[in-house]
């Protein structure tokens, strides 16, 4: 069994869930087809695997949009009808004809950043506890370190998105 296929499938499942949750949160009906684009690094993965892209589109009733090309580096200027979706380090930009309340999106981003900063503090408390590190199995400590790295990445991405909205 190929471990990479399992990892890819797990990530695709997370991506689909994140996009569906964003649709619900922004009151976009599942029957409405919406367009999306990807971060530059993620774009390479999906373009090189068209079957993965087609499955994502089918499961989320979305359409990949080549028109919205994102820069390799730097921040994308936020559009009024853009929804930013995070999924385990992956960043998707959904576009809808309905304009969204950007102040509500900013508030949501701030709340999400605060949540992840609190979560990061909890992880740091565990990892800074010598007794925990000494007595825990190496796999458990490694998992906590991975959680820490993932959380820091998510916080950074959320802060970049917040900065792009101002």
What does this structure look like?
Helix content is 63%, strand content 12%. By secondary structure, the chain is α+β, with helices and mostly antiparallel strands. Mean pLDDT is 81; it is low at 71-79. It has helices spanning 3-25, 40-48, 50-60, 102-128, 130-135, 138-165, and strands at residues 34-38, 62-64, 82-87, 90-95. Strands 2-1-4-3 form a four-stranded mixed β-sheet, with helices on both faces. The chain has two domains: 3-100; 104-165, Helix Hairpins (Orthogonal Bundle), CATH 1.10.287. Helix 1 packs parallel to helix 3 (50-60) and helix 4 (102-128) runs antiparallel to helix 6 (138-165).
Chain-wise SSE layout:
Layout: H1 3-25, E1 34-38, H2 40-48, H3 50-60, E2 62-64, E3 82-87, E4 90-95, H4 102-128, H5 130-135, H6 138-165
Helix pairs in contact: 1-3, 4-6
Tally of DSSP β-strands: 4
Rounded to the nearest angstrom, the distance between the terminal CA atoms is 47 Å
Which descriptor suits the 3D outline?
Answer: globular
The tally of domains stands at: 2
**Helix/strand-derived class?**
alpha+beta
Residue fraction in strands: 5-15%
- Radius of gyration computed on alpha carbons: 18 Å
What's the helical proportion of residues?
55-70%
Helix tally? 6
**Helix-strand pattern:** HEHHEEEHHH
| Biggest beta-sheet profile | 4 strands, mixed
Task: Outline the low-pLDDT stretches.
Answer: 71-79
Average of the residue pLDDT scores: 81
Strand order of the largest sheet: 2-1-4-3
């Amino acid at each position: 069994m190929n471990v990479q296929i399992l990892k890819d499938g797990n990530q695709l499942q997370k991506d689909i869930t994140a996009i569906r949750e964003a649709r619900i949160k922004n009151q976009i009906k599942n029957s409405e087809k919406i367009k999306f684009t990807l971060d530059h690094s993620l774009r390479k993965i999906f373009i090189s695997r068209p079957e993965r892209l087609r499955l994502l589109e089918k499961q989320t009733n979305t359409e990949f949009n080549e028109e919205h090309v994102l820069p390799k580096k730097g921040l994308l200027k936020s559009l009024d009808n853009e929804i930013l979706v995070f999924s385990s380090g992956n960043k998707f930009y959904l576009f809808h004809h309905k304009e969204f309340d950007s102040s509500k999106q900013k508030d949501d981003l701030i709340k999400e950043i605060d949540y992840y900063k609190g979560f990061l503090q909890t992880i740091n408390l565990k990892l800074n506890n010598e007794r925990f590190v000494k007595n825990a199995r190496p796999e458990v400590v490694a998992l906590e370190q991975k959680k820490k790295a993932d959380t820091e990445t998510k916080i950074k991405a959320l802060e970049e998105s917040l900065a792009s909205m101002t």
